[in-house]
Amino acid sequence: MSKEVNITLTKDEAWVLFELTRRFSDNDKLNIEDQAEERVIWNLCCILEKALYQDSDLGYKEFISKCKDRLRDEEQ
After folding, report:
1. Cβ distance 19 to 39 under 8 Å?
2. Model-level pTM?
3. What angle is formed at CA 44 by the lines to CA 41 and CA 46, rounded to 5 degrees?
């Protein structure tokens, strides 16, 4: 089974999401500055909800915790 999820965004969605994440990268604050940014987050959530499934018998909170653990940077 693939460990990748492919999603499709419109170019407008991609650019607005890029700008939102770029600002977050610059100042570590996730602020919605325009309703279009709110819309792109909602759209992304819907896209991900359709694309994902929980392939585990774990409860949802434990499943998400395991996903987070695998994504964190290793401690040095």
Report:
1. no
2. 0.80
3. 110
